[in-house]
Design brief:
With 246 residues, this protein is of the alpha/beta class. 32% of the residues lie in helices and 21% in strands. It contains six helices and twelve strands. The strands form four sheets. A four-stranded mixed beta sheet has the order 5-4-3-6. It has a three-stranded parallel beta sheet with strand order 1-2-7, covered by helices on one side. A three-stranded mixed beta sheet has the order 8-9-10, covered by helices on one side. It is globular, with a radius of gyration of 21 Å.
Length: 246
């Protein structure tokens, strides 16, 4: 590859999936990337209790149904759940009852597991990439809680460029933000359009050369194919309208 070219491998919205994150790290070598960028929504959305039964099996509610997991299948099930982006947690019936009764406790357990997995990812990233010298930039996305900022910044290898313009490669710049306009889900980093516009303006004012600038913004460009989404009603897609022939 010519020295004046920069090969970037970009991914986003892994949402806690361990298999996706591992593939993302492996992509650096496979695609001979100079830089890795993970553009937000790195954490998962769901804690799945696996409730131990008297016979040694476990019961869990996932994939839209109640599932009974045999003792010899529990580790494989946990791996499947981690790969899908959720956080499996083995609990006793009494612990599960406490979780159901105390939403604050349940929320804390979810946050603790989210933080634990992200810390594991930071260690894995350093282990896999430190000898390569390939930098990894990671921001939060609108779905991510603000707690992840400190975890990423605490890493000795992974860099968090949120709100900054950083130099990558030889002479390229990258402006980054994981904030989003308001969504139906009211995510942690959802902010009004006007506020988002001002935030982006403040960031890009730091850019020196727009001809060699990468815009690492979590929200897709307006009216592009990736910006198209179905209308929602009660958080469900509207598939047709009255009078449609479909």
């Amino acid at each position: 590859m010519a020295k004046n070219l920069l090969r970037v491998f970009f991914a986003t919205d892994v949402h806690g999936s361990e298999v996706c994150f591992r593939k993302f790290l492996n992509a650096a070598k496979f695609y001979e990337a100079d830089v890795l960028i993970l553009g937000g929504d790195v954490t998962g959305k769901l804690l799945v209790p696996l409730i131990q039964q008297l016979d040694g099996s476990y019961k869990g509610y996932f994939l839209g149904s109640e599932n009974v997991i045999k003792p010899d299948a529990i580790e494989a099930t946990e791996k499947m759940l981690r790969d899908s982006g959720v956080y499996p947690l083995r609990v006793s019936p009494s612990e599960y009852k406490e979780m159901k009764a105390d939403k604050d406790k349940s929320e804390k357990m979810f946050r603790d597991m989210m933080i634990q997995r992200l810390k594991e990812w930071m260690r894995l990233a350093e282990e896999r990439l430190k000898d390569s010298g390939i930098p990894l930039y990671m921001t939060g996305g609108n779905d991510d809680m603000f707690e992840i900022e400190d975890i990423i910044r605490a890493s000795s290898y992974v860099k968090n460029p949120e709100g900054e313009v950083v130099t990558i490669g030889w002479d390229y710049e990258m402006a980054s933000s994981g904030y989003s306009n308001i969504t139906p889900w009211k995510c942690p980093r959802d902010i009004p359009e006007e506020e988002l516009g001002k935030k982006i303006e403040q960031i890009v004012q730091k850019v020196k050369n727009f001809d060699k600038c990468i815009f690492n913004f979590h929200v897709p460009p307006y009216d592009t194919p990736i910006d198209i989404a179905p209308e929602l009603k009660d958080l469900r897609p509207v598939l047709s309208r009255a009078g449609d022939s479909r």
